[in-house]
Amino acid sequence: RDVARMGKRARRPRASGAEMAAVSFAALDDQQILVLAFLDPRTVCRVGATSKTGIFAQAATEDKLWAQCLARIFGADGHAASRGPSGEAEAKPGNAFKKWFAAAKELGMLPAFSEPLAAPLSGPFFGCWARLQRRLRSEAAPVLATLRPPATPEAMQELALMCRELQPDCAPHPLVSGLWNVHDGQTIPHFFYRQIVDNEPLDSREMSPLEGLFGGYSVYDHGGSLWFLPLTAAMALTRLLRGKIEGFKDAHPTKVAFAFGSYGRGPMKWMFVDVLDGSVACGTNTRPPSEYLPAAPPGEGADGLLRWFSEFTKRFEEGTYVHRPMVNEDRDSWGICLFPAQGAELSRCVTRGVEVTASCIYMPEHRAQGWGYSLAFRLLGTAEERGFQTCQLDTRIWNVELEGEERDTVRGDGVIGFFPILTDGGWICNLESDPHSQYEVEGRTRKSSHVIPGEFRYQSCSQGSRSMRGQFSGTLLMVPGTRKKPTGEPFHATLNPFRLYIPDFIY
Asked: Using CA atoms, how far apart are residues 82 and 71, in angstroms rounded to an integer?
């Protein structure tokens, strides 16, 4: 009888594996999911591939698990857990994690997943860094080569200690310290580091390097670029400024420097971030701390540094900022140029095939000259369409209109000593177009003539005003052929107005 009963029990229908797994998984508490969340994500994926019905295999696909991975590794929680690194919406946390993971792989950050993390990597910066590196790789490889590995845990701890020095119970906001989580600044030349840490002036042979990550410009002998500082150098510079600049500690008690630029022999510019609220400010050695300027418009939360960084990335991606020679007469002076090369801030006009483009940049470190501007000329179309093969600049008239002041009209011959002769594909450099031999060309003699490919470009300055608002326009008298051998009647090419103002974002 007992054997028969056992046989009957044995013939009863058994629960399917899926049903048993569902019952068992229902009992899986949050602590067990948390254990899976602390595995290397690649290991979690391998667990998920072991079985379709296993308890841990099913746990490896849970939204709750991948949401915890996003929060633990990238600091992306709440609303951010449903978005990718570039802000794109994702239906599931697992899909969002795949995109974060791909961005981390592109940034060379995968080894970090195999080690215990002292704090989450700054997810919000990952998307920007991935996009910026992509652009640097294709357009500015020398700048990319200067980027350092992520900041060490020791450096991050030192930042936390410094924050407590600045203000008791102060800790760096994740949207501040996260900037160094991907790259610990740039590898800066030794003499440049001495100037940052020891405040040693540059001598005439050692001008500010032009490979700064956050771009630069050159106007006459005033030029340089903004370098992203390693965390240890950033803290050293902050302590130096707090000790040497009167009023700095009182005006900016919780600010830390993160970028530095030297513009010729004297003017310097520093970018600061407030470790508590994330706001970004621009300071210079030519103005007191009370006159430091906001470098990003106010926003919600502590995302000022992130928005500043994101806006720079966007402009570089879109081609507003381009990698090109900073000093026109020196073809080896390459850097990320901050004079807008396209977009709303670029003035453009074509007159009889002569294209004139112009844009300006605000120079906070140069108190005497508020703005630098860049003008470029080139020929468009064909000689038949234009009615001439070449044409040469003779004279120009600039109109500077500043708010609250009378128009200032400036007339002169050529531009900064040049009388460029425009031709198809470039401009002719000879003694007639460059009478002072400012432009360096290999093999050039007083009688030689060389075609320089591309547009003719030059930079100059415009003085600031009390309102710091206005516009710049003008005309250029062009002679078909050359001034010595004209082939037609002179005509005026138009320089359309471009704005003079203090921008919301300062770089």
From this structure: 11
> Residue for token digits 């510079």?
237
What span, in angstroms and rounded, lies between the C-alpha atoms of 131 and 379?
34
pLDDT digits (tens, 9 = 90+) for 159-212: 999 988 888 888 888 888 889 988 999 998 776 767 666 655 544 334 558 899
Strands of 280-284's sheet, edge to edge?
A: 227-228, 255-262, 268-274, 280-284, 293-294
Which pLDDT does position 116 carry in this prediction? 52
pTM value is 0.84
pLDDT at 308 over 70: yes
Residues 6+ apart with CB under 8 A from 424: 379, 382, 383, 389
Direct distance between the N- and C-terminal alpha carbons of the chain, in angstroms, rounded to an integer: 91
Angle at 150 between CA 148 and CA 153, to 5 degrees: 135
User: d(Cα 133, Cα 107) in Å, to the nearest integer?
Assistant: 8
Token duo for residue 391: 């044409």
Rounded CA gap, 129 and 107, in Å?
8
Which range of 20-29, 78-87, 334-343 scores highest in mean pLDDT? It is 334-343
How many CB atoms neighbour CB 134 within 10 A? 14
Is the C-alpha dihedral spanning 182, 138, 216, 295 positive or negative? negative
Are 391 and 481 contacting, i.e. CB atoms less than 8 angstroms apart? yes
Q: Does residue 319 carry a pLDDT above 70? A: yes
DSSP 415-455: BTTB--EEETTEEEESTTT-TT--S--TT--TT--EEEES-
Residue 101 to residue 40: CA distance in whole angstroms: 12
Instruction: Say how far apart CA 446 and CA 79 lie, in whole Å.
Output: 67
Q: Is the dihedral of CA 224, 229, 234, 237 positive or negative?
A: negative
Show the tokens assigned to 135.
């652009």
What letter would DSSP give residue 91? S
| C-alpha closest to that of 447 among 465, 474, 429, 469 | 429
